[in-house]
Amino acid sequence: MSDIKLLDIYDKTPQNVKDSFSNNTRSELSVSTNFNKVEASYEWLELMENTVRYIDNVLRNPNRFIINEEEIVKVELARRITVDSIRHLSKHTNYIQKIEDNGDVKPSKILNINKDESYNTYENRLVFTLINNMRDYLEIKKKGLAKASSVKDTKKATYSAKTRVGNENVLVEMSYTSALSDKDELQGESPLEERIAKLDGDIQMLTGSNLYQTLHKAHVAKVIPPIKKTNVILKNTNFQYIMKLWDFLQSNPPDDTKVIKQKREFQDTGILKEYMDSTFLLNYLAMNTLSDTKSTIESKELVSEVTDKLIQKIVELNPNMPITELKEKIGDKLVMTRYKYEASLSEVNGVFSRRIKAYLEKVENMEM
């Protein structure tokens, strides 16, 4: 609405009517509020989503090192004779069984070296530990999905009031309820539940990789802070993103949702009650437009107001005029004004009657 027409009625209402209404008003306002706000952060979700690809890069191209396993075995069980084997035999002549005439040496035992690749590196164990931390972190977050960011704000007010305007008693009872419920939708193409489900699937993919399974079966020790700043961790791009997620998970516990609750019940005696009292007056003026006695009441109030102003003006112009003379002048003026009004009204009625009578006679003549 561009304008409120009720304000026009308010402006046209005599001031003494409004004052009488307000001065006689007795009211009560009961208020209850219930505010519940949940603040949840989803930075972890986006960070995990972005880091999965870099973890996958490491799993596909893991660091490894060669392990030399040395053992003394019977010469017929040796897989391969190496330089290291000959060197070891020269230092341990007790393993020489005999020396042939042509100079060939026949050992009874010899050093056997088995070379094997191992993925049990510090960097690989760091990635292994991070994947486990991601899985545990996500499980806790999934249980707390009901605490997604939201705001619930409920307000209820009960207002009762009564007043008196002239001989009219006015009573009002009103109940107001407001309920706000707003749940934040996570920015992105998919809803929160779908994104978490996809991330859960990505983590399961990581745990199914050969490197993860190898380290899991080997029961490798988890990496604990502080992290060793190896050259690979410092310079490799994949590990730069991995360390960003690692540091975040270490400094932000999974159950970091903030809940704010405020509940109040009170009797309002301030500005809100003044607003409601003003609304009570406006409601009265609106309903009073349906009343047949409205014009009579307003007329009486208007006459009283005009009379007061007239007497005040006479007194201001003639401050020394006796009260008896003032009454006589007002009485004479009132009688003369009423006589003129009644005479004028009588004359109008006479003219109107004569015109009607002439019109009827003319109609009768036309019918004959």
What is the assembly state of the chains in this entry?
A: single chain
The side-by-side strand order for the widest beta sheet comes to: 7-6-1-8
Kindly give the count of domains.
Answer: 3
Main sheet specs: 4 strands, antiparallel
Q: Quote the beta fraction.
A: 15-25%
Overall geometric form: rod-shaped
Query: Roughly what percent helix?
Result: 40-55%
**Rg calculated over all Cα atoms:** 50 Å
In short:
The chain is of the alpha+beta class and 368 residues long. The protein is 53% helix and 23% strand.
Task: Please outline the helices and strands.
Elements: H1 6-12, H2 15-23, E1 26-39, H3 43-60, E2 65-74, H4 83-91, E3 96-99, E4 105-107, E5 109-118, H5 122-143, E6 150-165, E7 168-183, H6 192-207, H7 210-217, H8 231-235, H9 237-251, E8 258-267, H10 271-287, H11 294-317, H12 323-367
Antiparallel strand pairs: 1-6, 1-8, 2-5, 3-4, 6-7
What would your notes on this structure say?
By secondary structure, the protein is of the alpha+beta class. The protein contains twelve helices and eight strands. 53% of the residues lie in helices and 23% in strands. The strands form three sheets. It has a four-stranded antiparallel β-sheet. Helix 3 runs antiparallel to helix 5. The longest helix has 45 residues. The protein is rod-shaped, with a radius of gyration of 50 Å. The model has no long low-confidence stretch (mean pLDDT 79).
